[in-house]
């Protein structure tokens, strides 16, 4: 078995793979204050509840957009799993050609998503990842990573309304019954859900105009099903895209050598 770990600004996604089969997946909150021991206890508890034998983990693959936490998770892996993890970054084989002005600026999650999208859907393809930020990543038919767009995430936008507008409440993100809200909560839900869906469609329309061929559109991230149900452009939602990408990168760097 291998463990893949996607460290995001809000959550950490974990997946347990046996070959190409995803056996278990978990999500825990990202805490910049947690120690390697605290993460070890959390992950060990998840393993026990799911019947995972940590001694059978052969390797660990990590991607992170939160640099301070990488060392903590690496230490946790060495102490609790007795494995030294691989981390997506310089020197790691991805199979992508990065046509970016400064490839070191690309978030590891964006690279991982692109690897999975090309493998699973082929190019050209656009990945829309609904995370703390919403990212649009474009890959052409030859597997060249072209770049993309970054916009504030839905959670950030919603929280900003609550914090900056004194009379607006904190709301639950769910689809309202009508676009024309008859109360403040429904009006906010309408603006956020349909406004964000329109934003996604608008950006993808412009991306299509700049790409040489018609790309497939794939979405991932926790809020992808909610938003993409209201879009015209997105027809494929894969919540496990990032975990799949980490598995593929692990195989390209470890299994290809054996």
Structure in words:
The chain is globular, with a radius of gyration of 19 Å. It is of the alpha/beta class. The chain has helices at 36-50, 67-81, 108-121, 154-164, 184-210, 224-228, 241-253; strands at 2-7, 11-18, 21-29, 59-64, 86-87, 97-98, 125-130, 133-139, 144-152, 216-220, 236-237. The protein has a six-stranded mixed sheet with strand order 6-9-8-7-10-11, sandwiched between helices. A five-stranded mixed sheet has the order 3-2-1-4-5, with helices on both faces. It has seven helices and eleven strands. It folds into two domains: 2-87, ATPase, nucleotide binding domain (Nucleotidyltransferase, domain 5), CATH 3.30.420.40; 97-245, ATPase, nucleotide binding domain (Nucleotidyltransferase, domain 5), CATH 3.30.420.40. The mean pLDDT is 94. A hairpin with a 3-residue loop joins strand 1 and strand 2 (11-18). 39% of the residues lie in helices and 24% in strands.
Helix run count: 7
Question: At CATH's second level, what is the architecture of the largest domain?
Answer: 2-Layer Sandwich
Total beta strands? 11
User: Which structural class should the secondary elements be placed in?
Assistant: alpha/beta
The top level CATH class name of the largest domain:
Alpha Beta
* CATH-level-4 superfamily name of the largest domain: ATPase, nucleotide binding domain
Average pLDDT level: 94
How many structural domains does the protein architecture include?
Answer: 2
Instruction: Determine the strand fraction and express it as a percent band.
Output: 15-25%
- CATH fold topology of the largest domain: Nucleotidyltransferase, domain 5
Please describe the biggest sheet, giving its number of strands, its sense, and whether it closes into a barrel: 6 strands, mixed
Percent helix, as a range, is 25-40%
Uncertain parts:
none
Shape call? globular
Give the H and E element order.
EEEHEHEEHEEEHHEHEH
Strand order of the largest sheet: 6-9-8-7-10-11
How many angstroms separate the termini?
A: 15 Å
């Amino acid at each position: 078995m291998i463990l893949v770990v996607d460290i995001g600004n809000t959550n950490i996604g974990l997946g347990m793979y046996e070959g190409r089969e995803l056996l278990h997946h978990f999500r825990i909150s990202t805490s910049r204050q947690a120690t390697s021991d605290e993460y070890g206890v959390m992950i060990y508890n998840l393993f026990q509840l799911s019947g995972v034998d940590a001694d059978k983990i052969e390797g660990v693959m990590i991607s992170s957009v939160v640099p301070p936490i990488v060392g903590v998770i690496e230490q946790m892996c060495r102490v609790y799993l007795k494995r030294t993890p691989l981390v997506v970054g310089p020197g790691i084989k991805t199979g992508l050609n990065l046509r970016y002005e400064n490839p070191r600026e690309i978030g590891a999650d964006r690279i991982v998503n692109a690897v999975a999208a090309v493998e699973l859907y082929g190019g050209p393809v656009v990945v829309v990842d609904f995370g703390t930020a919403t990212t649009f990543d474009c890959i052409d038919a030859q597997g060249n990573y072209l770049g993309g767009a970054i916009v504030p995430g839905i959670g950030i936008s919603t929280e900003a309304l609550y914090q900056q507008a004194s009379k607006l409440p904190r709301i639950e993100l769910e689809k309202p019954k009508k676009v024309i809200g008859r109360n403040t909560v429904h009006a906010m839900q309408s603006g956020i859900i349909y406004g964000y869906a329109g934003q996604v469609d608008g950006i993808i329309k412009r991306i299509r105009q700049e790409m040489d061929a018609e790309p497939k559109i794939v979405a991932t991230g926790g809020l992808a099903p909610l938003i993409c149900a209201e879009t015209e452009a997105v027809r494929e939602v894969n919540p496990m895209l990032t975990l799949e990408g980490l598995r593929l990168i692990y195989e390209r760097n470890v299994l290809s050598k054996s």
